[in-house]
Amino acid sequence: MHSDSNHEARAATLLYLLRERAAQLAGKTAYTFLEDGEEIGESITYAQFADRVLALAVSLRGQLVAGDRVLLLYPACIDYMVAFFACSCAGIVAVPVFPPRGGKRNLRLEAIARDCKPRAALLSSRKLLHVDAAMAASPELAQLQVICTDSVPAAAAGWVGPDINSDTLAFLQYTSGSTGLPKGVMVSHGNVLHNEHMIGACFESDSDTTTVTWLPIYHDMGLIGNMLQSFWLGGHCVFMAPVAFLQRPIRWLRAITRFGARVSGGPNFSYDLCVDRIAAVDRQQLDLSSWEVAFNGAEPIRHATLERFAATFAPHGFSKRAFHPCYGMAESTLIASGGDAKEQPTYKWVDKTQLTQRRIVETQPGIGQALVSSGRTAPGQLMRIVDPATQLPCQPGTVGEIWLAGPHIARGYWERPQINTEIFNAHVIGSNEGPFLRTGDLGFLDREHLYIAGRSKDVIIVRGANHYPQDIEASVEVADPALNPAGVAAFGVIDDGIEQVIVVAEVGRSALRRLDSKLLVSRIRQQVLEQRDVVVDVVVLIRPGTLPKSSSGKVQRGRCRTLYLADQLDRVSKDDQTAPAAVADA
Is 413 helix (H, G, I), strand (E, B) or coil? Predict the structure, then answer.
C-alpha cells in the first residue's frame, strides 16, 4: 500500500474521527442525556468526550490486549458511548449488549459470551451491584474481569494510538441468533464510516443537525443510526432510555419540540404507540415543525401507521414529507435504502394472492395489499434482486431475494466460516458482479424504489427486534413439566401488517387429566417474557404427538403455521389464549 492509500486507511477509523471532531468542534455539545426522558442528566462537549475516551483507552490498553473482546454492560448513558469509542480507539473489540437485570440469568448474554469469549466486561460503578448477582449466576460471565470505567485517571500526555486502519475490527453487532448459535456481525472501522456517509446522504444531514433518540444503544439502529451518525456529522444528539419512551411516549415528541430536532425515528410500532397513548390535551404543547426526517425501519412499515400518525400530528407541525421509510440490517452495518428527505412516502397497492406467488400485480389504491417503499438504494452500494433458488436475476414484476454489495458490508459472522461463504460470498449467475451479501429478505424494485414483500429467513420481528423461533421454543420447553420436551413450535403470523408471536405446545399425556390450561399458558408467557423480552400473542396447547415434525424429528414450523391458520391443530382447548399489546420492551 503506497503512502496516500495508507493515510486514507488510517483516516477511516473512529480514532481519527474522534480527534478530528475534538479539534474542530471542541466546545460544541456532542451528547445530552435526558434523565427519565425529561430533565438533562448530563451533557458533554466534543473535547470533553475525547478526553474521557482517550483516558479510558489508555487504561484499557494497560489491562487488555489488542483484539480482546469486551462486553459493554451499561444502561443508556454517556458512559456507554465513551466505552464504545475507547475500545475502538484502543484496538479492542467492543460487544454492545443489554445488561442483565437483577439476579436473573440472561440466556442471550450467556450465549454471546460463549460465542465471542470476552476477556472483560465494562460498566459503571453505580450499576456494579445490579449486575454482579446476574454475572455470578452464570459460568460464562462469572469469570470475566469487571472494569468500572467511571473512575479512570486522566490520559497520559502525548499518547499514541494503536496501529489500526479501516480494515481493523471495531465491534461485534450480535443478531438475534438461536440460543446455541448467536451470530456476531464483524463490523470494521471502514464499514462504520462508509455507512455513516450513506446515512448522512440519505437523510441530507449536516453538522447543524440535532437528533433525538430513545432507541437502545446496543441495537444497530440506535448505535449507528443515531449515536454514531450524529458524532460523524458533528451534530448534537439528545437521547433517553428506551423505557422512558415506552412508559410515556409523549417524552419523545416533547424532546423533539424542546431541542428543535431535525432527525428522529424508530420502528413502526413507535409511531402507533404515539397515536394510541398521547392524549389530545398533551398534543397541544407540541411543535414538530423542525422534524424533517422521521425515519421508520427495523420492522414491516405499515401504510395505515404513516397515514394515521400524519393525520394526528399534522395540526402540531408534523409534515408527512418528513416520513423516511428505510431498510437495512446489521450485516450491512445498518442502512441499505432510504426515502427522499423531501418527498412523501411512496405506496404501491398489489394483489395479495399474486404476492404470495412472488408476482407483483398492481391494483387500485385501497384494493389489495398496501406496500410502502423503503426508498432508493443508498449511495455507494450495489443492490440486486435475485431468485434465491437459481441465483439468477429476477425478471421485472417478480419478487426475489435482496442482495447487497459495497464497502459497508461486514466481513462476516464471528468464527462462522462456513456460513460466511454462503451468506457473504454470493455471486449472481451470469454476472461478474460480487461478492454479495444474501440478506434473506424478499423484495422487488420498481422505478428505483425498494419494496419489502416478505422474508425467507426464519425469524419473527417484534417491534423492530429479530427473534429466532428456536430461542422462544427453548424457553417454552422448560416453562412447566406438563409440556412435552421438543414439542414446541413458535412462528409469526401477520395480522393487519403487525406480526404476532404464536406458540404451539404439546401437553404430556400424564398431565392431560389434571391440566389447568390457563395457569400453564400464563407460565409459558411469563417464561418467554422474562428470558426473551417477548410477549406471546397466542398460545395453543395441543395433544401429545400431534406437533408436525419431519421424518428426522425436526419441528415443521411452516406446516404448523398452516394448520394453525386453518384451525386444524388438535387442541386441548378450543379457546385461543390471546395477549394484550405489549408496551414495555426496555
Answer: strand
